[in-house]
Specification:
The complex is a heterodimer of chains A (352) and B (164). By secondary structure, chain A is α+β, with helices and mostly antiparallel strands. Chain A has 14 helices and 10 strands. An 8-stranded antiparallel beta sheet of chain A has the order 2-3-4-5-1-8-10-9. Chain A has a two-stranded antiparallel ribbon with strand order 6-7. In chain A, strand 4 and strand 5 form a beta hairpin. In chain A, helix 9 packs across helix 10, helix 10 crosses helix 11 and helix 11 runs antiparallel to helix 12. The longest helix of chain A is centred in the last third of the chain and has 30 residues. Chain A starts with a helix and ends with a helix. With 164 residues, chain B is mainly alpha-helical. Helix content of chain B is 46%, strand content 9%. Chain B is built from 8 helices and 2 strands; from the N terminus they run E-E-H-H-H-H-H-H-H-H. In chain B, strands 1-2 form a two-stranded antiparallel sheet. Chain B starts with 12 loop residues before the first strand and ends with a helix. The chains are: A alpha+beta (352), B mainly alpha (164). Chains A and B meet through helix 6, strand 6, strand 7, helix 8 and helix 9 of A and strand 1, helix 6 and helix 7 of B.
Chain lengths: 352, 164
């Protein structure tokens, strides 16, 4: 896998549907935290044994049938830009990018499956899908987990479940999350309603890149906090049948209200965003995020007809800093990045 | 923006109410909102819980420097003091070694639950004791290989094999 090839295209799983589900739910993700029996957790594992563990897990993963071609990337020896690219594409966590010591990642060709080795736990596998597809994610990751377990013994205790380095992952070791786009709730000042519903259900609200990141623009990552005493299936069912439909209903209601009661204010916001994106010569990543978010809403409510949802989704991914620099083939300063970002957005927005 | 009620703390809870087409906004701080029953079960961050971990040990007279906080896990050397700083455990055996101290922390972060429910590996899970044994043997094997003590290494490999 060559990072330079990736930076021109969005991940292949990252395609937008057109129903209200994939308008509000951008993506679904499930990850499992696992540790291998016979090894200390990473904070107490010597560098030699970390290397030994890395080799062992890597060989095992590469020998398995993971449903398609996979690549291995040595994160310890990757360049800063490559690491950032992987974070921007959600292939690895920020923690993995910034960490130290022998560590790597196995990435499936469609980028929907990745396995981080020697992150906070020995092994963290994750599966992504576009829209609300948590059941499909669970089926795929469960199958992969079964296959790994045939070759490697996991640290497991019948009472406590899968043993993890941090007690907040104990039990199932599962983190189920959905990336949500909630512009109308934000615009109508009702986002607190969503936050409260999340807290009441013991869910965490985070930013675009998960743990430790602030919610930027109108994007929110919603994930389970409780991992012990609830089965994986229960958590997935809760999200799919109870939690997400409720949030979608809130957002849909807010969109309807905006369209009926404040159509001009809504159009103004959308058209101004379009105007800036179609003509600006310098755009920061923050500004792009906010404006693209407004355009995305415009596409979703039918007020913007000549731009597709997939174009907007694509631009979110391709205009991130590491993507721009790999595309340019060199390190760019902030000004140069803002220029290139504006150029790409202008050309995509005016083409359609 | 200051809380409308106490006018002391920053307002973090913003309520918008609509009645008879009249829109009214209320801005309150966390405490006042909680007092009025408007808010809100706050998730206690893990690091705050960790801070209380050592101070709640009954036998610990001098809190953070007490013997209980310094007691190392015989398997990995992790202490509660270090765990409360890093929030990561050192080996699976820590869950047994520090069971008593970890229990309230796990219950608070896991919504009161303390029993696993869900997927179980198809291979019979090993006893925790056996896992700790395995770690110990693996460590000894490393040392033996480094010292080119192949006789001991061979013996240890056999022992490890019989464990798995």
């Amino acid at each position: 896998m060559r990072p330079a090839d990736l930076c021109q295209y969005p991940s292949s799983w990252f395609a937008g549907g057109t129903d209200i589900l994939s308008e509000v739910v951008i993506s679904s993700r499930i990850r499992l935290a696992r540790n291998i029996a016979g090894y200390e957790f990473l904070s107490c594992l010597s560098p030699d044994r970390q290397q030994q563990l890395l080799d062992r897990i890597k060989e095992t993963l590469l020998s398995l049938d993971l449903g398609g071609k996979v690549d291995y990337v040595d994160i310890d020896h990757a360049s800063d830009i490559e690491r950032s690219l992987f974070v921007e594409r959600h292939l690895i966590s920020q923690r993995h990018a910034k960490g130290t010591g022998p560590r790597g990642v196995v990435i499936a060709k469609d980028e929907a499956f990745t396995a981080m080795i020697n992150e906070e736990d020995h092994l963290r596998i994750q599966v992504y899908a576009a829209g609300l597809q948590l059941h499909a994610c669970w089926e795929r990751i469960n199958r992969i987990d079964d296959a790994i377990e045939q070759k490697l013994d996991y640290s497991f205790d019948i009472r406590r479940g899968y043993l993890t380095a941090c007690p907040t992952n104990l039990g199932t070791g599962i983190r189920v999350s959905v990336m949500l786009h909630l512009p109308a709730l934000k615009m109508t000042g009702q986002i607190e309603k969503f936050m409260q519903a999340a807290r009441d259900c013991n869910l965490a609200v985070r930013g675009l890149f998960g743990e430790g990141t602030e919610a930027v623009g109108d994007f929110f990552q919603l994930s389970n906090q409780v991992t012990l005493g609830v089965s994986e299936k229960q958590i997935v069912d809760d999200f799919t049948e109870r939690i997400v439909p409720k949030i979608i209903a809130y957002e849909a209601e807010a969109r309807k209200t905006l369209l009926e009661k404040k159509p001009h204010a809504l159009d103004d916001k959308i058209q101004r965003a379009l105007g800036v994106l179609r003509s600006a010569c310098l755009i920061s990543s923050q500004e792009a995020l906010f404006l693209l978010s407004n355009v995305r809403l415009g596409v979703n409510v039918g007020r913007v007809k000549d731009i597709s949802l997939s174009t907007v989704n694509e631009l979110f991914m391709l205009t991130q800093p590491a993507h721009l620099q790999l595309r340019a083939g060199k390190i760019l300063n902030a000004d140069q990045r803002d220029t290139l970002r504006a150029e790409i957005i202008r050309s995509r927005m005016n083409r359609n | 923006m200051l809380c409308q009620n106490c006018k002391e703390h920053t307002a973090t809870v913003h309520l918008t109410e609509m009645s008879d087409g009249q829109r009214s906004e209320t801005h309150l701080c966390q405490q006042c909102a909680q007092q009025q029953g408007l808010a809100i079960k706050t998730q206690i961050p893990l690091n705050e819980l960790l801070g209380t971990l050592l101070s709640t040990q009954p036998e610990s007279g001098e809190k953070k420097n007490s013997p209980a906080a310094e007691h190392p896990c015989p398997n990995c050397g992790m202490t509660l003091k270090r765990f409360s700083k890093e929030s990561l455990l050192g080996c699976p055996h820590d869950y047994t070694e520090f069971e008593h101290e970890l229990k309230p922390l796990i219950e608070q972060t896991q919504n009161g639950k303390d029993h696993h429910c869900g997927k179980v590996p198809s291979r019979i899970p090993k006893e925790d004791r056996q896992d700790a044994e395995l770690i110990k043997l693996n460590r000894q094997l490393d040392v033996a290989v480094k010292n080119e003590d192949y006789e001991t290494a061979a013996r240890l490999r056999d022992q490890i094999k019989s464990c798995t």
